[in-house]
Amino acid sequence: MSAFFLPNRLFIKLLIGFWLCSSLIILAVGSLPLLQQSHEAGEIPPPIMNVLQRVAEKLQRSPERLRNIRTMEGADIDHHRPLVAPPDADPTINFPGPRAEDPKRPRNMGEQPFHLFIFDAQGQLINSPRLPLTVRNNLLMISALERPSPRAFSFREEMFFGPIVFSANGENYRLYAGLPGPHRLPWFFFFIEHKLLTLSLAILLSGVLCALLAWHLGKPLMSLKLAANALAHGNLTNRVDEATSRRHDEIGELGIAFNSMADAIERMVNSQRRLISDISHELRTPLTRLQLALALARKRGFAGEETERIAYEADQLGQMIAELLELSRVTLKTPEEKVYVGLAESLSQVLDDAEFEAAQQGKNILIQIPEELVVPHYPRPLSRAIENLLRNAIRYAETEITLCASVEQNKVLIIIADDGPGIEEQELQAIFKPFYRPQSARDRETGGWGLGLAITEAAVAAHHGTISARNRIVGGLEVTMKLPLVG
């Protein structure tokens, strides 16, 4: 249980990754309304505040105008009258228009008017027959405040100021002013006004963060998968890359454990192969002595049926030991340089011998290997593999054997087929195991020791290739070798 709470664990990385992604999205979405509110509900600039207070004082001194407004719908007061910034106003403040005395003021720029809105104590608008939607929104924002005080609210279409409270005829009134026209807003208003774009950006950013997290976790897992597949295909030297095994989380520990397992498997398999090789070498000494004793016995006239039988079995044992040594040499990957020559040229001697052997048995071999086909290979193991397959095909074929080589998806395909009886389906995967002989080849006279195809499979594995067998629909066996085109 204590290991679960150690730092730098995969659980913590997943937790922090998703938590950070969610927190950033929530923070970004939640901060926009706060930024908007902090910008919209600002202080009224002093020059504009002074103008509004003077308007309120004027209405307070002339209460009859309010009565006229009530009865004559504001005809007596021009609430669209332009209000110009005073000469001593701050030039950085966005006023309704430039100073009247400013010589740089464009001729075609009219002074933008304040729109005045007056509400009585009951909240009724008394100087306009209709309440604009922006004004209604601003009033809702002001009413949401605990203590409404004069504030400035900014929108792209209008700036809104108020309330300015004043009394006339013993009643309280609230004065608001709106300044229409486009206004420069902060950058975050762009995201507030374009909600669909903001949502798309949030989805995109969250996708990028999740993709980075997935890549961080998926890349080492892919390395583990490739290493496991290579090990399963017989490449005992393949290991998880160093970047994965040096990670400080469960994936790194898994990579270290995998490499340790691969090291143990490689040592065990190599020890087994060396044991076979050592035993084969040790058997050669008593076998040589036995053959020498047989030769002496024949020389002294002790030849007979028993002696010939012993000689035959000694020869068989010698062939088996030679096969075991060849299998051990191929599987142990004795150092040998790869050659980059044409496949037909490299196999010329093997192909000539196979054609001669087939002709002696009245059979025909069709060979199709492009002259320009060059594949990096170890000459001796590959020649031995092709030789074993051709001899098996010649042994069991009725009349025809074919050998075709081609290139397909960066792989060299070598297909050897015959028109013989084939093999039982359940035995197709087992014929490449050492000492395995199909039911149809149990006789040692014809079936050998069951090491030829094992040597072939080991030679193909030394090239990092694959080999498989299947029965042909028209009859016979087809063996396919796939070798990498790039060494």
Annotation keywords:
3 domains; HisK_dim/P_sf; HssS/ArlS-like; 50% helix; transmembrane helix; Heat Shock Protein 90; 4-stranded antiparallel beta sheet; Helix Hairpins; Beta-Lactamase; 14 helices; 487 residues
Overview of this protein structure:
The relative contact order is 0.06. The protein is rod-shaped and about 155 Å long. The protein has three domains: 41-94 and 110-193, Two-component sensor protein CpxA, periplasmic domain (Beta-Lactamase, 2-Layer Sandwich); 250-331, Helix Hairpins (Orthogonal Bundle), CATH 1.10.287; 339-484, Heat Shock Protein 90 (2-Layer Sandwich). Helices cover 50% and strands 15% of the residues. With 487 residues, it is of the alpha+beta class. It has 14 helices and eleven strands. Strand 3 (158-168) and strand 4 (171-180) form a beta hairpin. Residues 1-7 and 69-111 have low confidence and may be disordered. The strands form three sheets. Strands 6-8-9-11-10 form a five-stranded mixed beta sheet, with helices on one face. Strands 1-4-3-2 form a four-stranded antiparallel beta sheet, sandwiched between helices. The protein has helices at 10-40, 46-61, 63-72, 133-143, 188-193, 195-232, 242-245, 250-299, 305-331, 343-346, 348-360, 379-396, 444-447, 452-462; strands spanning 115-119, 151-154, 158-168, 171-180, 339-342, 364-368, 374-377, 400-408, 411-418, 466-471, 477-484. The chain crosses the membrane at residues 12-35, 196-217. Residues 278-487 form the Histidine kinase domain. It is a multi-pass membrane protein.
